[in-house]
Amino acid sequence: MKYALSLLLMTALLSCSAQQNDHATSDTHLQEASIIYSDVSNAEAKQLMAERPNLMIIDVRTDGEVSQGVIEGSMQIDISKPNFDSELAKLDKTAPVLVYCAAGGRSKTAQNKMKAMGFKEVHNLSGGYSGWE
User: Fold this and answer.
1) How far apart are CA 38 and CA 121, in angstroms?
2) Which of 71, 79, 101, 110 has the fewest CB atoms nearer than 10 Å to its CB?
């Protein structure tokens, strides 16, 4: 009788433990699901701009490139300057970001840096400013 009661108690405890682990796993999955890194087209970028009022738009081009034009509402943080990482560190890592350069290469590098810094949502304009319409 004691053996049966002990076995029943142990089974109940293991069952509770397994349910807690399953719950923890699904919480982790939900947290990971909210992290987004993507390459976007002009149309997708414009849709993000229209739908996400808190979208930060970051131009990583040089001063000379910026003088030729910018995407409205963007802020410049030149990726070639030594303070690039420290300027990124000042930004809200939970806000969605659209990052662009001239053709998409440097902004992809910036996106990877932002991912390493813990930014939750970063979209790279795949064609860069040169393809912006």
Assistant:
1) 8
2) 71
